[in-house]
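Service request form, structural biology core

Requester: graduate student, group of Dr. S.
Request type: structure prediction, single chain
Budget code: on file
Notes: please return the result as structure tokens.

Sequence provided:
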Amino acid sequence: MTVKQLSDGNPDGVKLGQSITDLVGFYGVTPIAQKAAAAQALIVDASGGAAAPTNGILTLTGTYNSTILANAIATMAAQQNAMQAVLVSVGLMKGSA
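Core staff response, request fulfilled:
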């Protein structure tokens, strides 16, 4: 089978869709318009903490405010779920097994 290239060698690059309303899909899923949701907004980090992606979430010690921590976790979960939903809807991620 011959592979079809989407690029035409243009130095400005290649894009799929001319606007957010154009329908795009991958791997045989139904094409959709770009999704938008409040949970896709950037998370404002006012924690004063240092991100440690290699460590994950460490055990908490000492005094802490459980409401602030619960809200932070809920915010991160909502954003991750929004990103996962978009990737699944365009066929770039399978979702649940």
